Amino acid sequence: MCKEMNIEIPIVKNKRISTKIDSCTNQYIFKTKREKLRVLVFYSTLDTLCQGLNSRFQQDTLDLISSVGMLVNLSDEIEKSNYELLSKYFNASTDELIAEVKILKAHKDTPRGTNSASVYHWLDWLCQFSRSTIYKQFYHCLKMFSIIPVTSCTCERTFSKLTIVKNKLRNTIGQERLNALLFLFVEQELTNNVDINDVIDEFKHLTQSDRRLVL
């Protein structure tokens, strides 16, 4: 970036090396500024991120992810403890889930894989031909796992937008209208794709009793 912006790259200022009695250096000297930034800034930032990930994803969460991975892959290594963990988090029946997995292993066209896309492939496959009603516990576990938020960023963004929507001029706003306005404000990617002409046409064909749109 310094070369692109025509900025002179600063020179590394070496400090005085402290030596022991045997004249062996005990301090590392950076030869370039790039090397200094990589060690003092880049590596330290990576350590901070890794520590944050380790504290966020506790052992119970890792066990749950591992159990779901073996479940979608219909692995033979899945044990009774994994089924009990899934039943605990997703409120499913352990015996019914074990029976459904045994039946699914006999199918030849079932999706396989352990990546995140495999869960959605399974959900699409179960929705076909009303398979979700046959394998209820299996479908329930995957559906609940797919809606678990990875981080709390969505909740934090909602609270930050709440102060913008409900300001001093809207202090007496009702809960139902507040939820509707927050939904439109948070899901801006969806609302921006709405065609206003389609909304007007739909409103035009409604009866007078149905023309009061819920905001």
From TrEMBL:
Highest taxon, organism lineage: Eukaryota
GO-annotated molecular function: protein dimerization activity
Residue stretches making up the HAT C-terminal dimerisation domain: 99-190
SUPFAM superfamilies: Ribonuclease H-like (SSF53098)
Listed name of the protein: HAT C-terminal dimerisation domain-containing protein
Lineage: Eukaryota, Metazoa, Ecdysozoa, Arthropoda, Hexapoda
